[in-house]
Amino acid sequence: MKYKLYLFVVFGLLNFVVTAQNTRINNYNTIGWYNYFGTFKLDDKFGIHTEYQLRRDNTILDKQQGLLRLGINYQLTPKTQFRLGYAWIETYPYGEIPINGFGKEFTEHRAFQMVTLTDKLLILDFSHRFMLEQRWVGRYSNINFLSEDQFPFLNRFRYMFRLQVPLKGKSIINKTPYFAIYDEILIGFGKNVNENIFDQNRVGILLGYRFDNTVRVEAGYINQILQLGREVDGRNVFQNNNGLIINANFSFDLSKNNTVD
Asked: Taking all residues of the chain, what is their mean pLDDT, rounded to a whole number?
């Protein structure tokens, strides 16, 4: 009797998964994300974060998104960092099913709060990043409008786990190649969230090289699964975006310039 119950549950779950797959629309795109990250250390506690991400469809040929992010860092402990900031995002009508229902580009403004926890186990460096975003996403109430006339408010929670390991030696120091992998999940919440409570999941696999204390570069593969906030013909729409990611990371210590001879 127990075996029959187990089989019933297993077949029920399989049927649910198959039905969900059949009732949603899957859209596939080839993307390229080219990112700059710059940190300016002011003293032992405070710093400035700058960031620009150029996101493209068809690897590099077409626009996907542009993202500018600015923030203030506060280093609570060597392993705990807080960041407050603002982000400006421009999203373009890419792929077979654009994110905007009218097939238009739209602007988004965000405020965000973030905490990053880092640690080390043997030769492994790992981090947990938690982020809250308050989003004002541009929307058109009429297809004939040339610019957004509405900016509904949305909330989103993000969690990213990242693991990296040196490819020589026991730690990632100057002139060290390394391997990194990360996964980030994005969850929408609040009264204005539509279909996409599950908003996105991103997985990255990277090879990196730390040149010195100032410059570090990474390149590799990224997978982005994104659910649209609207249905098409009564069906949920999921983008499955795969492609290239390149990160250029810069860290400048301005506190050294504040010393007096």
From this structure: 91
CA gap 46, 167 in Å, rounded: 31
Rounded mean pLDDT of 2-21? 45
Read off the pLDDT of residues 176-214 as tens digits, 9 standing for 90 and up. 999 999 999 999 998 888 877 899 999 999 999 999 999
Q: Which of 6, 20, 47 minimizes the C-alpha distance to 253?
A: 47
pLDDT exceeding 70 applies to what percent of the chain? Answer: 90
What class, spelled out in words, does domain 28-258 have in CATH?
A: mainly beta
38/216 Cα distance (integer angstroms)? 10
CA pair distance 31, 7, nearest whole angstrom: 41
Contacts of 245 (CB under 8 A, 6+ apart): 32, 33, 34, 35, 204, 206, 218, 219, 220, 221, 222
Round to the nearest angstrom and report the end-to-end CA distance of the chain: 84
- What DSSP character marks residue 117? E
Residue 19, pLDDT score: 42
The token duo for 116 is: 């990053």
Q: What is the mean pLDDT of residues 157-170?
A: 97
CA torsion 9-11-12-18 (nearest 10°) is: 150
Q: What's 182's DSSP letter?
A: E
Q: Any idea where the domains of the chain sit in the sequence?
A: 28-258
Residue 236 CB contacts under 8 Å (≥ 6 apart), including other chains? 23, 24, 25, 195, 227, 228
